[in-house]
Design goal:
Number of strands: 6
Mean pLDDT: 87
Low-confidence stretches: 167-178
Order of helices and strands: HHEEHEEEEHHHH
Structural class: alpha+beta
Oligomer: single chain
Number of helices: 7
Radius of gyration: 18 Å
CATH topology of one domain: Nuclear Transport Factor 2, Chain: A
Strand order of the largest sheet: 2-1-6-5-4-3
CATH architecture of one domain: Roll
Largest sheet: 6 strands, mixed
Length: 178
Amino acid sequence: MAPTETITNFYTAFGQRDHQAMAACYHPDVRFSDPVFEDLQGDEARAMWHMLCDQGRDLEVSVSDIRGDESSGSAHWEATYTFSPTGRTVHNSIDASFRFEDGLIIEHTDTFDLWTWTRMALGPIGYATGWMNLSKDKVREAGEVQLNRFLESHPEYQSHRRPPTGTGTDTDTDTDEG
């Protein structure tokens, strides 16, 4: 399948909230990043799209400017949906870049303005504070918590779960001191 066809299939499936068809476009070792989910790998990326498909009850997706060759590609896409925690409408404009391996997406990077997103999703509080790194970190943390909850409730992804960012392990318990 040509990379442009893979990109088209990916966003057509997203518009239909078909996470399985989206996952079929991804290489097993895919890496995904965007301003909220900064480094997802393999099943984490597939689980994130599954979660968004499940939550996107009124999701509308459009894609344009699809370009690609055998190893890379790009597209512009837009998503309109209700952000359920606030009930506010979000219209997100995203530029995507892709790398391909074996005809599948091995790397997917979405770029959008997180401050613009927080203004739409959170309203006045997002407008006032969404530009601050602390607010952006809170949005990322909330996304990570939400994804981890989703992973916990979906056994097909549980073996691929990473610990939350910022949680260390207690290495002092494995000492040979006696």
